[in-house]
Amino acid sequence: LLLLSFQACTGIENIDEAITLLEQNNWDLVAAINGVIPQENGILQSEYGGETLHGPAYGPTSHSTAAASTPSSSSAFHHVVPSRQIVERQPRMLDFRVEYRDRNVDVVLEDSSTVGDIKHILENELQIPASKMLLKGWKTGDVDDSTVLKTLHLPKNNSLYVLTPDLPPPSSSHSGALQESLNQNFMLIVTHREVQREYNLNFSGSSTIQEVKRNVYDLTSIPVRHQSWEGWPPTATDDSMTLAVSGLAFPCHRLTVGRRTSPVQTREQTEEQCTDVHMVSDSDGDDFEDATEFGVDDGEMFGVASSALRKSPMMPENAENEGDALLQFTAEFSSRYGDCHPVYFIGSLEAAFQEAFYGKARDRKLLAIYLHHDESVLTNVFCSQMLCAESIVSYLSQNFITWAWDMTKEANRARFLTMCTRHFGSVVAQTIRTQKTDQFPLFLIIMGKRSSNEVLNVIQGNTTVDELMMRLMAAMEIFSAQQQEDIKDEDEREARENVKREQDEAYRISLEADRAKREAQEREMAEQFRLEQIRKEQEEEREAIRLSLEQSLPPEPKEESTESVSKLRIRTPSGEFFERRFLASSKLQVVFDFVASKGYPWEEYKLLGTFPRRDVTQLDPNKSLLEVKLYPQETLFLEAKE
């Protein structure tokens, strides 16, 4: 009804354009119409009689006539004629207050002008090349120099600011003053008047007043257009203004917010407000609540399917790869509801389980599964006001792995139900299967256990931010208790495994020591055996040499021999003596051989004479005993060589 009334008054037939204009004015019908048809251009041309009407299009008489002609009408607004027939559109003028550093420039242009026209005017005023300007503060999305102002659906009064990042600052005292203020953090102490509760909110200087009000709505559930504020500086005249230029006290500023009370208006007051829109309202301003307050999607409220207003689905049908499907889901979600949203896990549901449940107990998290449905009337408000609330986004990112799926297409719905049956059982799958479209979106909270995965909670779309947060925190309490038990069990198991590892290591070291000791003993025994073998071989070799020498000795001459005989008496190092007779003509080598046959080879021992003391082994062994004066008898002694 609100959309139809707005279209009838303004002549705008494009539904998307009409909804955009209403949303920019928080669904305030009078403000939206005044934004399209300003009061100063309220001269109307009537095709009924050719007369010109000035001022209010309706007085009491006309209103009563209209009311009498349609007594059974359920509409609060009565149309006289389509506005395209009675309104001759005049050029609409837009006022811009442009801030650049310490200067403010007022620019007035027709709505048929472009953004580039504003820059050219500023170029003359500020002496800055238009190519170096960044014009910020637009309420809409991307804007370039060729954008026509009419397409932005701007209100009459607008606030913008200019950034020149490529230009050097004018002086050290003012360098980066605006940029510095945009980077500052403001502490806003907001008191909720009705419940006497304070909220300490931190915002950057680049945040707008509108963003503050939307965040306060998440905390207090007071819609932006119903908020009544106290404490804003007089310079804070536009919600698109950033906090840095709004005149707030830095670093802390106190504000008070409450719910605005709207007194019931009389019919005459209503008619006066509707002078420029050519219609009469029988209801007060609070009768037109935001569609989002009732959980109704904009398109559904006006009989237009939500999916018809959106360009692409959240997820392709029959997607082969779940990771690719989630990539498209995340991109489409961001384009619809902004970048402040939960971080969706990109991958299969099994991979999400692995990430959430199968790490160390201290690193495990709950798994949150968001089930989207484009045809549900609750989807738009749940996504924009609950799921994208900063408090919810922050809590989910810290404590949950968030996975998403689109249930709009039947093939995707069937695929998820199959996954659900496999991982959670038929009971949970049947519960989701029986959910009606208007009960979506759903938020499933899953906790991993040793034997199975347990669904702790199924949250439907008809909830509030506070209730959603409470249910998330309740699930987190259950999970924390289970996690502490798992951590305790894991620590005990690791302690047992550490003890076992230490015992195994000690046993291994002991085995290594025993084996090393045994190997050392074996090496020692082998060395002893080798040395013994060498010794035996040497002894055997020496014995063989001794026997050979003993056998090669000439026979000992007899005492009654007629030949000259030399009698030698030899003393060993141990003090023993042995004697033998030799022919005086025998060579000295025969004596050496005799001594060697007794175990004293001349290579190791020397044979010494007494008087005079001499080393016999140094004499020529081929000389006879007679020649070396060892005749007729001599006492010699053996001494080991050094």
Automatic annotation (TrEMBL):
InterPro entries, per database record: FAF1-like_UBX (IPR033043), FAF1_2-like_UAS (IPR049483), FAF1_UBA (IPR044541), Thioredoxin-like_sf (IPR036249), UAS (IPR006577), Ubiquitin-like_domsf (IPR029071), UBX_dom (IPR001012), UBX_domain-protein (IPR050730)
Biased composition regions of type Basic and acidic residues, renumbered to the chain: 493-503
Protein name per Swiss-Prot or TrEMBL: FAF1 factor
Low complexity: bias regions: 60-74
Ranges of residues in domain UBX: 561-638
Organism expressing this protein natively: Urocolius indicus
Gene Ontology molecular function: NF-kappaB binding; ubiquitin binding
Gene designation: Faf1
Pfam family, one: FAF1
Domain of life: Eukaryota
Single biological process term from Gene Ontology: ERAD pathway
Region (Disordered), start-end ranges: 54-74, 483-503, 547-567
Any Gene Ontology CC annotation: endoplasmic reticulum
